[in-house]
């Protein structure tokens, strides 16, 4: 999406991912326009795209539902994300043009700097996903992966307890992916991508275990 519709999508997606639009809540189109300070047409186009990507559900007579955060959904999307992301990083390592050199090196440099907040980490992660997907030079793949990554981040941000520990772990796993792409080592990049997916699966299972423990303690 380009122009104001693309900007509306990006702003609304960020509100959803960070929970500023609360999971399970109903909001109106007018309220979304007020939140992001954009007009009806771009907001409506963004809502349609978000609906296709399963980030909102539109009920014409009621409003726009921000979907609940579900462990089952997270497990299901990680199954789909795993091969798509592995393919993307492999293609990026094989196909990337020199135009991506500076962006990739910049991302690696940012990883070596302290990431003290979830906002910092989210910005870096979003830039990394976008750059790698673009370097893969396959728009169908990019379109398929982007919403899965956003929904997965939403779950992660919602359930993080020790933010600094998880940020450090995520950064440690992201580094080899970027280095594999920079060094044109597709196997390194793909293996690192699978390791990151393994971490996300383990994180989700820990959420399940915590919920069981909390329920047993009641």
TrEMBL record:
Residues annotated as domain HTH gntR-type: 2-69
Annotated keywords: DNA-binding, Transcription, Transcription regulation
InterPro entries, A to Z: GntR_C, TF_FadR/GntR_C, Tscrpt_reg_HTH_GntR, WH-like_DNA-bd_sf, WH_DNA-bd_sf
Name this polypeptide is given: GntR family transcriptional regulator
Taxonomic source organism: Kocuria carniphila
